[in-house]
Amino acid sequence: MVFLVLLRDMCTGVGGVSITSIRVPPAVENGSAPVILDCEYSLASHEKQGLVVQWFFRDHPVPVYQWIPGKRPQDNGPLKGRLNLEYRASEDPYHRHRALEIVRPSTDLGGDYRCKVATFDNEDTQNAHMVVYVPAATFTVGKTKPTISTVNVTCKVEGIYPLPQLELIQEDGPHGSRMAVKETTLFVSSRDGRYDATLFRVLEDKHLPADTVFECLLSLPATEYQTVQKLSYQPGAPVSDAMPPPDNDIDEDQSHTWMGSGGGTSIPSSVSAPHQSLDSVVSSADEQTLQNDSESTDMWQSGTGRGIRAHETIGIYITC
Ligand SMILES: *[C@@H]1O[C@H](CO)[C@@H](O)[C@H](O)[C@H]1NC(C)=O
Ligand SMILES: *[C@@H]1O[C@H](CO)[C@@H](O)[C@H](O)[C@H]1NC(C)=O
Ligand SMILES: CC(=O)N[C@H]1CO[C@H](CO)[C@@H](O)[C@@H]1O
Average pLDDT, stretch 129-145? Predict the structure, then answer.
């Protein structure tokens, strides 16, 4: 008995102040209602004197918030003027102003937050991340027919923050299999602190089943934000075109030509990593663009004089 009591006393003595939970909303929309970032801790009664609660933001070296019981809380740096300093997380005088209330969260206040609770003898810290996002202003999926036997499927998003993830998915008919379309090309630009992104892939009709549905999946990492746009597509000649669809012989010929020189013209059947970030897509697209020239030249030269159009087509498939 005596031993146990001793042990417990030692533990509270050694452990001291300890953060029991940090509660930060993982994602909030830009300009939304006030949010609370809370930091709960346990405190031994002998530690109450000398308690300091601080919040740090991103890599700012000085705290953006500090509270010492009995004193007024102070805001600082990027949080200056952005907090409701009257907010009370608790009526307990040693816990009262431990939390931040951000009155109007905005994108510049997204990032890592660290709560630090210190007493004369001990301290504890914990981190949490908050994303402040801007939903897409527009998000569309569209198609064009660069040639009679191909389709260019394009996902386009405008005015979103932070960098989104875009994925193109091919669905074979309403209840068919779904797979991520690989070897897509991505362009990203930014204006006014928000991103525009375009993702596309040129596919050959002969590799697509009737009633293909293309799905563009837009999401923001670390948030619940996710939205989908769909497009159905009938492979074959353009509907408005009076010409009959290309017959099978022609298809076969082209297929042989391209397979023979490129060797990789079929749609890959495996599924890409489900949520590749734009960063990695951009960089892999870049690398692949660098590769394409030499490869397509090699491929082209290993073929036997096939004219500009075939060359371009090979280029497209090898590009990514
Ligand atoms: C977030 O909203 C604020 C206004 O509340 C605005 O000034 C800012 O530009 C917005 N951020 C982005 C990235 O659009
Ligand atoms: C496919 O569409 C994208 C986006 O609209 C465009 O940038 C690209 O040039 C198009 N490619 C072809 C071969 O039509
Ligand atoms: C066929 C093709 O897409 N060629 C491009 C390959 O990448 C280079 C850049 O390294 C471009 O200049 C080519 O147009």
Answer: 97
Q: Quick one: which atom of ligand 2 is closest to the CA of 152?
A: 1
Asked whether the whole model's pTM tops 0.70, one would answer no
Query: What pLDDT, in 10s, does the model give residues 217-272?
Result: 999 998 999 999 999 999 985 544 444 444 443 333 333 322 322 333 333 333 33
Distance 287 CA to ligand 3 centre (A): 11
Mutate to test the pocket of ligand 1, among 104, 106, 161 (most ligand atoms within 8 A of CB): 106
How is residue 287 written in tokens? 């690398």
Rounded to the nearest angstrom, the distance between the alpha carbon of 242 and the centre of ligand 3 is 34
Within 8 A by CB and 6+ apart from 248, the residues are: none
Q: How high is the pLDDT of residue 136?
A: 97
Ligand nearest to the CA of 312: 3
**What is the topology classification, in CATH, of domain 17-133?**
Immunoglobulin-like (2.60.40)
Ligand 2 neighbour 154 (Cβ under 6 A): yes
CATH 2.60.120.560 describes domain 138-241+262-319: no
Residue 215: pLDDT band with limits 50, 70, 90: very high
Residues sharing a CB contact under 8 Å with residue 297, sequence separation 6 or more, in sequence order: none
Q: What is the DSSP letter of 85?
A: T
**Residue 219 Cβ contacting ligand 2 at under 6 Å:** no
d(CA 284, CA 278): 10
For the chain, which residues make up each domain, given as ranges? 17-133, 138-241+262-319
Question: In which residue are the tokens 């992104």 written?
Answer: 197
pLDDT digits (tens, 9 = 90+) for 1-51: 444 444 444 444 456 899 999 999 999 999 999 999 999 999 998 888 899
Q: Measure the CA–CA gap between 265 and 202, rounded to whole angstroms.
A: 11
Q: Which atom of ligand 3 is nearest to the CA of 290?
A: 10
State if residue 309 touches ligand 2 by the CB under 6 angstroms criterion: no
Q: Whose CA is nearest to atom 12 of ligand 3?
A: 293
> pLDDT value at position 238?
55
- Which ligand 3 atom lies nearest to the CA of residue 289? 7
